[in-house]
Design a protein that fits this description.
Mean pLDDT: 92
Distance between the termini: 50 Å
Shape: globular
Largest sheet: 5 strands, parallel
Radius of gyration: 23 Å
Number of helices: 7
Structural class: alpha/beta
């Protein structure tokens, strides 16, 4: 059965309803850099399965991964059904505002999501947005501190923290704070930093120098405002300048 095939539903009283599934047309997929392969598949494959044509714009930070994924899928599709455009936010804006686009699917920042929603509103274009968050973790007095500390480290540092649903901040009951902090430092110290292609390493580099500077500025500002650094990993040596952003 085709995904767009009409479906007849029969009621107990003998009535019939017909479900008609028509493709929207052309779907623009704007994918992020933190999961440059997975997110294209997540957004593009359902659109293709529903009978739409798709134009993918990968993040300008990870263009080659995007190209590889699109080329692989294109190899089993009719010509023109799946296409790719490369470029920065201006290219994405042009794509979103184009009269030839019927739907936009995007994973990215909240600010960009607002902009896309505004651009789609005048023509009521269909829209799917997965946007960034500021996810908290709360540790109560009666919590299992071993589990809580493990989760705090794991879900803060996975993919070098470059996940929209990573733990961004932790609220801990004051009576267990010191004990919790010690356990977190002990676990974090075992997360080795280095080349992500080495299975012995658990934390790789950030995606770009811009992202590294942003994170460093956040840490510096927190310290300036009174935060205390309890643990700092060693930066791998050698870490080639302009190629590895630890």
């Amino acid at each position: 059965k085709n995904s767009n095939e009409d479906e007849v539903l029969e009621g107990e009283d003998g009535s019939k309803s017909v479900v008609i599934r028509d493709p929207l047309g052309v779907v623009a997929v704007l994918s992020p850099w933190n999961f440059p392969a997975d997110e294209i598949l997540l957004l593009a494959l359902p659109a293709l399965a529903a009978g739409n044509c798709v134009i993918v714009k990968p993040s300008e930070v990870t263009p080659l991964v995007g190209q590889m994924v699109v080329d692989t899928i294109k190899s089993v599709l009719p010509p023109g059904v799946l296409q790719i455009v490369q470029g920065d936010g201006k290219v994405g804006q042009w794509l979103v505002e184009s009269d030839g686009i019927n739907m936009v699917a995007m994973t990215g920042s909240t600010a960009v999501g607002r902009s896309i929603m505004s651009a789609c509103a005048p023509k009521l274009k269909r829209l799917v947005l997965e946007l960034g968050g500021k996810d908290p973790m709360v540790v109560f007095q009666d919590a299992d501190l071993d589990v809580a500390a493990k989760d705090a480290v794991q879900h803060s540092l996975e993919n070098t923290g470059q996940v929209c649903c990573s733990i961004e901040r932790v609220y801990v009951d004051g009576s267990i704070r010191e004990d919790f902090e010690k356990r977190v430092v002990d676990i974090a110290s075992k997360w080795k930093v280095g080349n992500g292609m080495d299975e012995n390493n658990k934390v790789g580099p950030l995606v770009s120098i811009m992202q590294r500077e942003r994170v460093a500025q956040q840490v510096d500002l927190a310290v300036k405002q009174g935060a205390k650094v309890l643990y700092k990993s060693l930066v791998p040596d050698p870490a080639p300048e302009e190629t590895s952003f630890y």
